[in-house]
Amino acid sequence: MILETSTPALLFPAISLLFLAYTNRFLHLANLVRKLHCDWVSHHDDSVMIQIDNIRTRLKLIRWMQLLGAISLLLCTISMMSILLKCHTLALSFFSAAILLMTGSLVILIREVINSGGALQILLTRVEEHDSQQST
Question: What are phi and psi of 85, to 5 degrees?
Fold first, then answer.
């Protein structure tokens, strides 16, 4: 199979959009950490610590998502350069690796989305506990 330069270039818009989404997730979590820190300082609530642990895990996942996505973009660029230099086997290898890394980034995204639901579950459990205590 011989690649054309347009083939690896197809990933550029997708990677750009993914990076925007990843950055937005990171910024949202950074703001949430700041808020939770203030809540912890003023209330010392155990549920805040559970949320902070969840967010710490999510931040690590986002860091890996971004890293794999960045390496994927780099490999796409190298693949395009290899095509221009007529090194088609090398180009195919780099492009294949780029697709594998982007797949890894997306798998980690799925894991992070599952964890984000867990963070909401912590809040819902806390509300239910508070509600049941007031009913008693």
Answer: -90, 5
**pLDDT value of residue 136:** 64
Residues counted in the chain: 136
The C-alpha angle with vertex 62 and arms to 58 and 64, in degrees rounded to 5, equals 120
CA distances, 7 to each of 1, 79, 97, 122 (Å): 12, 10, 14, 44
User: Domain limits of the chain?
Assistant: 7-130
pLDDT tens-digit readout, 94-114: 999 999 999 999 999 999 988
- d(C-alpha 55, C-alpha 51), whole Å: 6
Yes or no: say if 102 and 15 are a contact pair by the CB < 8 Å rule: yes
- The span from the CA of 75 to the CA of 19, in Å, is 16
Give the type of residue at 89.
T
Distance between alpha carbon 4 and the CA centroid of its chain, in Å?
30
